[in-house]
Fold these 3 entries.
Entry 1:
Amino acid sequence: MKEIVVVSGKGGTGKTSVAASLVVLAKRSVVADCDVDAADLHLVLEPRIKKTEDFTGGKSASIVPGRCSNCGKCYEICRFNAVIKDESKQPAYFIDHIACEGCGVCSCFCPEKAIDFKPSVNGRWFISDTRYGPMVHARLGIAQENSGKLVSLVRNQARMLAEKDNLSYIIVDGPPGIGCPVISSITGADAVLIVAEPTVSGAHDLERVAELAGHFKIPAFLCVNKYDLNPEVAENIEEKARAGGIAVIGRIRYDRTVTEAQIKGLPVVAFPDTAVAEDMRTVWENLEKKLNLNKQ
Amino acid sequence: MAPAKDKAAAKDKDKAADTVAGVVAGESGKVKDVAARVGVTVSFTKYQNGGGNVLCRDLMGPVHWVYPSGGNKMTINLTVAVASGKGGTGKTTVSVNLACAAVAAGYKAAYLDSDVEEPNGHLFLKPRISRRYPVSVPVPVIDAEKCIACSSCGEICQYSAILCINKNVLTFEKMCHGCGGCQLACPVAAIAEKGRKIGIVEEGVAGEISFVHGKLNIGEAMSTPLIKAVRSAGPDNSLRIVDAPPGTSCPVITAIKGVDFVILVTEPTPFGLNDLGLALDMIKELGIPHAVVVNRSNPYNSLARDFCREREVKLLAEIPDDRRIAEAYSRGELAFSAAPAYRGVFEDLLISIEKEARR
Ligand code: SF4
Ligand code: SF4
Ligand code: SF4
Ligand code: SF4
């Protein structure tokens, strides 16, 4: 079984459209949407939810008014400015749940034991069926933290499903950026597929994701999406990638079919006669070849 | 045009050139010489308020960059964040061009790139960096001599960043959130703190725009302290434009908390609008005044307009889906200069934001 994570550095490069097409092309696969704070994959895979669970990622603090003696200790020791002081209120202290990091320090040192510190529900995750196989996805709660933990959970569930059904691939739609959720998405994966766009920003972001993949020693592959918007920059990006030991496995052209497919709620390869679908197939074939070479 | 008028216009231009050149080169009049030496040509346009535009071109090639220059500075004190649920919708395009429009309109403006994972604004504004400093988070350091191996530190830590095993205390710095709990919990004051670097902040100027951005170290998971550092840099009493990271979780929230106004940039696609919906939920939770800007808009696609009506959110501007803007972007050029026809879009947007934010 191989786990392939589709990432992009910069968002909006067509990562999700590529991931959705890979899911269809990979056949015996399970798909995991790890872009947990802006998930889109469900819009083109039409999952039927079979199981929904709460996600408890961390704890959060709250002051029990009746017990607080207004000593101000919590206000003084919270390093995240999450304890707010408002003298017009009784008690004068309360906790800003959005700012709270869940470190528990206030609760531990409150002389009156007036601060509850309890696990909080940070989101939900789902196991679904799609036409193309099982899917694990999630939704981080509004203004919640711990996206990294939720990503790990989604990946673990996908792995369990793949093992149980003896599926050959896990296709992961990764989050944008290079921070906490991306690190959680790629550590220990078999391959990272970077979808870049031919812009100077795209080139800049590619360097940073590529470095990240290198940092965690994960084989990385590149495909430039909408390459014909600026073939010169596209080439430039591919050169840079090759120099950094990243294999270039295809190019995808700019095609309005991608947006139309999105509007119809379908992956692009559901329109098999289009040129862009052909590009996607080439990307997948090359990727599959490379992955199976690595195995030997 | 009559020759007298021609002359007057030339004189005008020269005057504007002087003002603007003073800003760019620091030495009035010398900018053209400097430019010739580095292989660019410079031209100037003048605004009514006494400000102008410096247009730098490669000798052969396309427009290289434009540094607008305002005349008499008007006072403003406003922080506006530009955010979007989905990445790649054009946050940076809107932010940098808005900063240009602000300066051209005579405001003091600052551009703060808080997308520290993938900062891109500098590719368009091409700032001169004058100050660079690291940002660190506090992590514990154990004095083994003093430690009595009581395990209190490990018990209070919520992030498994400190552990006491076999009479030894181990720290895992990358997991540490710097809450200071272990230090407070240690009964024998065996824990001190040191800084662990997570990235750098760079400050400078791009023409008259004050420029700040943060760069997160590769492999670093902790981005919020760096975002806070970017937010607190830059001049007060100006129009501060915060280019926020994508998404709806901690990094964005850190970037937009406490700003006066948020612009949500979206594109008229199902993905774009789904993520806009999530971003709206987040902003309502934070209670910040906000409005939407649609990028890559076209008259025949009403998805975004319908969405805004349904969710009862104000649509401030639509930036047309024009290949010229996309191509300028792909080359790292400002739409404000490369596609001057669209300058008005950003100027109008600026006026609308001001109006909305002052309500
Ligand atoms: S430390 Fe406890 S008692 Fe003191 S102000 Fe905070 S909640 Fe109230
Ligand atoms: S749990 Fe930590 S972050 Fe939250 S309020 Fe208490 S001290 Fe502050
Ligand atoms: S400072 Fe806080 S997070 Fe860091 S090791 Fe100590 S208790 Fe853990
Ligand atoms: S709390 Fe202090 S004394 Fe106790 S194990 Fe930790 S460092 Fe050592």
Entry 2:
Amino acid sequence: MAEVNLKQVRKSFGDTEVIKGVDIDIDDGEFVVFVGPSGCGKSTLLRMIAGLEDITSGTLEIDGRVVNDVQPKDRGIAMVFQTYAIFPHMSVRENVGFGLTIAGVSRDEKDRKVMEAAKILQMEHLLDRRPSQLSGGQRQRVAIGRAIVRDPSVFLFDEPLSNLDAALRMDMRMEIAKLHKQLDATMVYVTHDQVEAMTLADKIVVLRDGIVQQIGAPMDLYHKPANLFVAGFIGSPSMNFMDVAVRQASAESVTVEAPALDPVTLPVASGEFAGGGGAKLGIRPQHLSVVEGNTGGALHGRVVLVERLGTETVVNVDLARGGNIVAALAEDRPLSVGANVALSFDPAQAHLFADA
Amino acid sequence: MAARSTLTQSNMAGWGFALPAFALLAVFIILPFFFAFAFSLTDQRLISPNPTRYVGFENYERLLGMNILRIEPARDDAGQIVRDANGDPTYPRVRTFTRNNPDLPHLQGMREWFGWRSGDDRVVVLARDVLFMKSLVNTLTFVIAIVPLQGGGALLLALLINQRLRGINAFRAIYFMPVVISIVVVSLLWRFIYDGNDGVLNNILHGLTLGAFQPIDWLGRTDTALASIIVMSAWQAVGFHMVIWLAGLQTISPTYYEVATIEGANKWQTFRYITWPGLRNTAVLVFIVITIQAFALFAQIDVMTNGGPLDSTQTLVFQAIERGYGKQDISGGSTIAVILFFVVLAISLVQRYLTRERT
Ligand SMILES: Nc1ncnc2c1ncn2[C@@H]1O[C@H](COP(=O)(O)OP(=O)(O)O)[C@@H](O)[C@H]1O
Ligand SMILES: [Mg+2]
């Protein structure tokens, strides 16, 4: 069990800086997810914690000890890779016990520890198989088993579910969540999938271009995104953004307006909007609802796309006065393409961002 | 579909382009292969006024015929063993058994290959064609020595070269260079290295030992000639196999090495658990190719020793050519070629079996 602290961590490959001064504090036993678009530096950051990449500058502490120059094997970490990286020429038993073989642990102890890990992952029956006889999910289980056997204080996962199909991914996601509860270890998990991040994390770190955008609990990020990027990245479907003009700003409210939108007053602190000018209004698709009749203040438009999921109906609406908006309406709605709708939202649930 | 019609059209064109090469292959490789089988069953000569006769397996018997002869020591009239000055028994000469001996017609014409003492008796292994047997043994010695030497050396170089170091490409080029030089040229050059009087090797050894080393005629002694050729041959083609190993090394996923790093594996463990298993298919290829090439040993012998001294560097291919063209005995040469074919085939199958994928 251990804390992990990154202080002003930077990484350059040649002249290109990939990680640009990252501060993250991970508590003991916490499940932290690094999330961000592909290429933002998540894997690099994780590999720096593992010791597979040098740290160009800054300090990395695990359990209060600076480990910048400590060998990976002495950092008390174990890593699970996206491609599983289990050895095709070894049985599952040998794969899971690989670290113990390397460490020269006695046969009895190895057998015992491998069996222990296999029990946790419910794969005792697979131990004598070859990797070629396993499904993708089972292979990933073997890779996790190999990590468990190391008895690490920090587990590192680099997109462990990306090579699995959707159904299996959900199962494994739950398995990993269970594993975290059971082992009570610190886990750092990298993914580009915000659903994985939201469901697994105690704490999410949103990264973009090697810079931390926001750190917080999943619901903090959902309800109080720090900026446009986080707002757009977290939540599915993505938040709608609309260019608006600030008409009026008082201490506790800001009134905005757009061609497609009649003036609306939002209960947000005026702060950066005090000077008027442009801003971006963010409305989550889930916060839009259909209103009957020609209600004033609503967004009017024509449905161009309908996705009926049963629990939810996602409609894409071309607004009559320009622009396009996506609404996720609760329950199944028999809307059809071409229908005219009016959508409204609760100003208290809308977000306002300064123009970038 | 358009794609299909272009395919069928270009198929014809493809065959057209392949035809010249295919014809050459047929005339110089495929036909001779079958001719060799046919000739080995006849008494065909290169140029001969007599018609060719079918002789069955006579050629094979003449090459492979072997026998073991137990010779009792010579005894005097009292029945006592006659001993020489050293107290060793004396024996009747082998030729008394193999030349015109009416009691032993099956030994007619055989010669002593090697022998040993067993009690007071002497056991002699007779061969119908001792020269062939010697070349068979030399060829096998060459193969057994060169497979680990060349294969292992190439792997070592590949491992060294597979690092990201400054100027590593220069080393790659240098190690590969001998491969592009003709083996005949290499053999000629190495004659200077191995020269008995003023050879480079002798000079170096002389210098290193501060003059204590006495020059050796490396190619002129029965105990060093074959070894010298082995070392040179290994050196010449090591770069080729290095490149094959290198290709194999680069197919191993770097993630495996990262797993090893995290587990704290040392260099040997990394090699044993990751690199070597990852090279299995490459190893099969390298070892079979080296084996096949080694059995074809000819040019080095032809240029450097001509099979000498005292037949210590005779090889199967050298004998096949020597007999087929030198002695105009095409059927004899063909028979050696066919035997060689089966030896190589058998060894390749065994190697494949030993390195098969176990599930
Ligand atoms: N070994 C490397 N050499 C050079 N650039 C690299 C190397 N590894 C990663 N990068 C670059 O660093 C950036 C972040 O990569 P990565 O951490 O793998 O992103 P992510 O995992 O978030 O998709 C990318 O732009 C990538 O091209
Ligand atoms: Mg990545």
Entry 3:
Amino acid sequence: MTEVIAQSHMRHWRQDVRLIALMLGGALVTVYILAPFCWLLLSSFMHEQDALSVPPHWIPKNPTLSNYLSFFNPSETRAVVGSRAIEQTLPGMLNSFIAAVGTAVVNLVLGTLAGYSLARFKFRGRGALLGIYLGSRMLPGIALIVPLYLTIKAFGLLDHLVALIATYVTFTLPFTIWLLKNYFQAIPRSLEEAALIDGCTWLQMMVKVLLPTALPGLIAAAMFAFMTAWNDYLFAVILTSTTASKTMPVVVAGFATDVTTERTLMATSGVLAIIPPLVLAFLFQRLIVQGLTSGAVKD
Amino acid sequence: MASVDIREVRKAYGPAQVLHGVSIDISDGEFVSLVGPSGCGKSTLLRMIAGLESVTGGEIHIGRRVINDMPPKDRDIAMVFQNYALYPHMTVADNMAFSLKLKRAPRAEIERRVTGAAEILGLRPLLDRFPRQLSGGQRQRVAMGRAIVRDPQVFLFDEPLSNLDAKLRVQMRTEIKELHQRLRTTTVYVTHDQIEAMTMADKIVVMHDGIVEQTGRPLDLYDRPANLFVAGFIGSPAMNFLQGKVTVNGSASFVTESGVTLPLNDAPAAADGRPAVYGIRPEHFVIDRQIGLPAEVIVVEPTGSETQVFAKIGGQEIVSVFHDRMNLNPGDIIPLAPDPRRAHLFDAGSGERL
Ligand SMILES: Nc1ncnc2c1ncn2[C@@H]1O[C@H](COP(=O)(O)OP(=O)(O)OP(=O)(O)O)[C@@H](O)[C@H]1O
Ligand SMILES: [Mg+2]
């Protein structure tokens, strides 16, 4: 009897230790991921001397918004030391945004059509096609850089956002198609059939029933495409050269080699670069998690 | 409302023939049930009526029109799916109003019909909910509501109750029947549950391997099955079958393979000496010391309202059902007598009724 109790104590104790270890581990990983970002965020509120002080410290001495203001409202002094950062950040963000939204939109349109066909129709070469899509994900982008550069040059599209969007679509679409194919497959066919019987044409069925039902999948696909384009450095650095198409990662990387750029301005542009995807993530996360499909059928 | 005529309809998926020429006449306002074992082609036929599957051969008429190649949206039918297929992003009210909105019916009309249907089905308090906020039975009702607001020519049901628990199934069975009595809309109802078919339908179509085995009113199928398949499919527990030979000289009788002689009221003269199958339903046995055959009790299963007795006659196992409480034990010998007026005879080769 006492032995049993002792054993159960032992088990509880083991569980507690396990829980504490897990929580500690989680906390460590969180710090590891968030620390650089916190540094960035805090630096963006510092004065330059503050940021350069030795030893470095985390908390700004006299927090200031001047770094943010100078991006939207450049002042005389800043024009000298941080001119490149200030000139290029906002156009860079705009370029990034256009490229990312463009990539997401093209992915959605083509991915929906292809994904639907692959999910619903059996045709010759379907399996091969899916295999090729999957295989293309195995190809590292760096292997294609030179032919890609030459191709785009031949089209006269260097330093053009269209070239960037086309490139990003090439690399994201196969995955999007797979994602949406799987999503459509999980939606029962009877839902479409019910819509057809209720009086829909095929197009009405897609727009009024299937796509709204697939909304979480569509959002996930769009986010994936958006983020891939937003984060890309490799292709952007090769294919762009001026503010006509330079994207944010290229602009930010440029600061590191620029002797006149202030640290605090770099940090601020970093924070600005994070805002759009962050906003999108918060906006759509709820929709994705909500699980719109539940309740359609008896499961 | 309309009649539905199915004439020599065939269906093939590539080389695989699924329906081999099915003909069914459904008159205006009739409730017809398609029954048969899994894979016999019930759903396929229903989906062909709905326009969800192409017709390989034959003709389907709704009213006077041949609708073989008409898209589903123009057929003026409503279908209730086994998995309900509710639109998950719409409220109950919007689910029901969907078809009317597509037809651009006036707002007031939509409102009136949706509330009317909701009233009939007890969905009034649920109109603003989403399908995910409903129980299985409520979802089933919404699926029916979506069908009735349309006031279609024909209702099609594909095993609408098979996802419900036993109690709810019985309740919904009655509700659907009531609904049909009220609306009198031509209905085709697919089920593999023969009790559902028996209780609800005006007419039952028994299908098997892509052909129609028999069509008729529920009790006609029960009392005069056309062949062994129907005899075995309709009725629960199933009819007992005993192999043997018919003798017609003098008074007709049936001798089983093990030599037991069973009584027959009469038999066609042509059947004399033919190998045949003797069919007798479990409830058509009596315990009678005078004419009973010795039967050894194997298992006794009381269900409360009746008692099922499994016993052996001449080495062959049979099941009988009695409405009295029986005080029997395994191993007892009881005098069991089949009622000769209720016996069925089938040809052993073709399975057809003799
Ligand atoms: N798309 C298809 N391709 C090939 N064969 C099919 C297809 N759909 C159905 N079949 C075949 O047609 C036959 C009839 O199928 P059906 O779904 O009509 O059966 P059912 O009577 O409704 O059975 P259940 O009671 O299991 O629902 C089955 O043998 C099935 O394998
Ligand atoms: Mg079926």
